[in-house]
């Protein structure tokens, strides 16, 4: 397949070669050979790659939107506890930075324009937790870049992915919360960080289970 890399497992990656970086999980989708002339096969390969990438991006968007609906409202903070962060981390690691940026970009743009798929069916941007959604985008790109360098292959490194990604979400969410609510840094940390520390640890553990397990499953199929 033009523009791809074939690994020892006989799987051809989709997209441009990455000589200085490794693949993410989405790059290892099998590219089936099709009959026809070399030129026809080349055009077909490009079209298939574009279609697969579009499907991956949309799937990532829907995954984050779906997990964002799994939430626990907390009476002492305007920020709900949801699984949206987990979705952003998994999408970043599985799809890589470029596809993840597209997935989360669609999620944000559509939500701002009125699609009610933010946590609790919210849309728009004028609410206290919107900064965390901006953090989803940034975290997914950073996590995707880390996954390109193999940080999702082991349990401990995957825990690092989860913790770093969560910290990035807070780096965007807390300042927005301060401005939106007029709270001090200490108050914002109490409202927007402290209630979620345990949940973030659980999410990091889930990331540390899912990502290395996916790579191990791939290795067994080689």
Automatic annotation (TrEMBL):
GO terms for cellular component: plasma membrane. Keywords: Membrane, Transmembrane, Transmembrane helix. The chain crosses the membrane at residues 49-72, 78-95, 102-119, 125-147, 159-181, 201-219. The keyword Cell cycle does not apply. The keyword Cell inner membrane does not apply. It comes from the Bacteria. GO terms for molecular function: biotin transmembrane transporter activity. It holds the Pfam family BioY. Belongs to the BioY family. This is Biotin transport system substrate-specific component. It comes from Serinibacter salmoneus. The lineage of its organism: Bacteria, Bacillati, Actinomycetota, Actinomycetes, Micrococcales.
């Amino acid at each position: 397949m033009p523009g791809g890399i074939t690994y020892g497992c006989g799987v051809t990656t989709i997209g441009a070669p990455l000589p200085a970086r490794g693949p993410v999980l989405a790059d290892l989708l099998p590219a089936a050979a099709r009959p026809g002339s070399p030129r026809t096969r080349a055009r077909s390969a490009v079209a298939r790659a574009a279609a697969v990438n579009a499907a991956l991006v949309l799937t990532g968007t829907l995954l984050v939107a779906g997990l964002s609906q799994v939430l626990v409202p907390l009476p002492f903070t305007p920020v709900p506890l949801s699984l949206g962060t987990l979705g952003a981390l998994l999408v970043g690691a599985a799809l890589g930075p470029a596809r993840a940026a597209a997935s989360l970009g669609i999620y944000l743009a559509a939500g701002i324009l009125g699609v009610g798929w933010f946590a609790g069916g919210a849309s728009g941007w004028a609410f206290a937790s919107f900064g965390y959604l901006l953090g989803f985008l940034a975290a997914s790109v950073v996590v995707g870049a880390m996954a390109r360098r193999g940080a999702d292959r082991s349990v401990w490194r995957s825990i690092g992915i989860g913790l770093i990604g969560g910290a990035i979400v807070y780096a965007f969410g807390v300042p927005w919360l301060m401005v939106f609510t007029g709270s001090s840094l200490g108050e914002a940390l109490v409202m927007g960080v402290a209630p979620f520390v345990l949940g973030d640890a659980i999410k990091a553990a889930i990331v540390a289970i899912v990502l290395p397990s996916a790579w191990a499953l791939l290795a067994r199929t080689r």
